[in-house]
């Protein structure tokens, strides 16, 4: 079959993933929680105790949105920083989640996900910042990397935790 010009199957998959994740959360969250689509993030779960889950959803048919220097990875963290700074959510009461399908791996993303202590996260962020200097400033992720490392690092640590 020949691909038709103007076809947007890949983009549609990205948008269609959000309602699937919404229904997943509706079926798995406590009955007193509220689930949002494109409210606080792609998908969000608002618990009665004030805790919130914000989730970015990424489909990854052709690329890896969580590879070390992927624009999607750093853009997501940048977005969460901006929203936290704007008061959209309290980082102390919010769980930040990046959902990728099909499953992909990325060294930095995995390390950031695995670490819990502030000191470990700060050390990894320092390592990434030093390695970032080797990434071209014309890279699609450069703007977002710079914003993440220019932000209050205490806030960045809270988001990663």
Report on the architecture of this protein.
Helix content is 47%, strand content 15%. The protein has helices at 9-28, 71-85, 107-114, 118-132, 142-150, 153-160; strands spanning 34-37, 43-46, 52-59, 94-101. It has a four-stranded mixed β-sheet with strand order 1-2-3-4. A hairpin with a 5-residue loop joins strand 2 and strand 3 (52-59). Helix 2 packs parallel to helix 5. The radius of gyration is 17 Å and the shape is globular.
In short:
This protein is α+β, with helices and mostly antiparallel strands and 161 residues long. It contains six helices and four strands; from the N terminus they run αβββαβαααα.
Strand arrangement across the biggest beta sheet: 1-2-3-4
Shape: globular
N-to-C order of helices and strands: HEEEHEHHHH
Overall pLDDT score: 91
Could you tell me how far the N terminus lies from the C terminus, measured between alpha carbons in angstroms? 46 Å
Helix content: 40-55%
Helix/strand structural class = alpha+beta
Count up the helices.
6
Biggest sheet features? 4 strands, mixed
> Ranges with pLDDT <50 over ≥5 residues?
none
Total strands: 4
Strand fraction equals 5-15%
* Rg over alpha carbons: 17 Å
């Amino acid at each position: 079959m020949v691909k038709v010009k103007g076809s947007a199957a890949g983009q549609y998959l990205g948008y269609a993933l959000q309602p699937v994740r919404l229904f997943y959360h509706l079926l798995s969250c406590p009955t007193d929680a509220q689930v949002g689509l494109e409210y606080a993030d792609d998908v969000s779960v608002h618990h009665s105790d004030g805790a919130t889950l914000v989730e970015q959803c990424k489909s990854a048919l052709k690329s890896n949105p969580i590879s070390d220097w992927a624009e999607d990875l750093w853009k997501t963290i940048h977005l969460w920083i901006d929203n936290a700074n704007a008061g959209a959510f309290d980082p102390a009461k919010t769980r930040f989640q990046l959902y990728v399908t099909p499953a992909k791996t990325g060294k930095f993303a995995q390390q950031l996900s695995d670490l819990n202590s502030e000191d470990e996260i700060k050390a990894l962020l320092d390592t990434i910042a030093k390695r970032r200097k080797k990434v071209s400033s014309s890279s699609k992720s450069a703007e977002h990397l710079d914003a993440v490392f220019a932000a209050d690092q205490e806030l960045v640590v809270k988001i990663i935790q």
